[in-house]
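We now fix the convention by which a protein and its fold are recorded. The integers have meaning only within a learned vocabulary of local backbone shapes. The record below shows the convention in full.
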Amino acid sequence: MARARKNSLFRRLQSFARDYTAGMNSRDLQRLFQRDAANAYAVLTRDHAQEPEPKRGLKRWLHRTRLAFLGLSYKLSPARRLVFALAFLCLLFGLTTGDLKVDLNDEKVRFLLDYSPFWFTLGFLALTYLLALELVDRIRVRDELEVARELQAALLPHDMPVVPGWSVAHSYRTANEVGGDYYDLMPLPDGRVALIVGDASGHGMAAGLVMAIANATLKTALDLDPAPERVAVLLNRAIWRIGTKRAFMSVFYGVLDPATGSLEYVSAGHPFPFIRREDGRIEELGSGGLPLGIREKLPLEARTAELQPGDLLVFYTDGLAEAVDTQGCAFSYDRIAEILREGGSTWTVHDQILASFDRHTRDEPLRDDLTLFVLSRLPPIPVDPVKMATTEPATVSS
């Protein structure tokens, strides 16, 4: 009976340990004590980074400890900051013993009080309480970010419109719950198609807000005049009016005529798309310039490109080309061009680029949002003249 109880307890402990450590691997632990620790220290001490640091030894360790303590403290609210300081003092008291002297009728009585377990426990409970409060705040923020993520997802295309004679492949990945990349393909009343690929500064909630403003402005601009220069001017004005230097957005916007393959476009600080011609030549599409929102008025010039049957066009954001592996080596623009040079269908090229990207980054988390948008003009369907000549016309009965 006792042995059965022990086996049952062991199985429960084993099941708990398995559930508690689910999803954890050695790379996560290594990252926790290396890169994550360095990033945490940089964030906590950035307000005091201007202070000179001793070069080595105990002074350097004490200096960094003080900065980390101040960084932790000043990231808390005043009330929580006080509790944190008291908890820290309690932990220090917990490492000592007490010595109390009391005078009774001119006689000195000495009491030796060993209160270290009490103070240590009190400090531990106070820190646990603060941790619980911070976790609750983080959960609330996460819930709000989840709502923002769902709203942002509604702004991005799920099913691209069907454009006769053209094929589209696309994907989107975010570095955080909310991203700043934006892309879309929108039919116009005259039969042309407007396309846009943009990348708001940074990533996270701030970039998502810039992206949402750009989306709303774009829809209004298309109703007024879809011409590239006019749309770019309105987008620039909307982002400029946010009123902060951190708010800007690189954009490639164009209007495509599916029948002729003519693409009129404006590029504002965005990575140049690649064109793979049918004969295998690789060309870059775009021109240098500042992102939208940097200045109130930007020199924006529309250009034109001609896409022939069999040509393939690849749009992307810098989160693809500049993503680094564990050694700090970037995926690079040249690698995108090399993969594109091999050719293939729209989805083949799209999947090959992402597969190479995943092999390059492995388990490294994204540091920036990633958008990949591939557009190709399909070659005409060949017609067999012999088959056409031998086809008998359909008879019509009266």
Remarks:
- DSSP finds twelve helices and twelve strands in the chain.
- The domain at 159-377 is CATH 3.60.40.10 (Phosphatase 2c; domain 1).
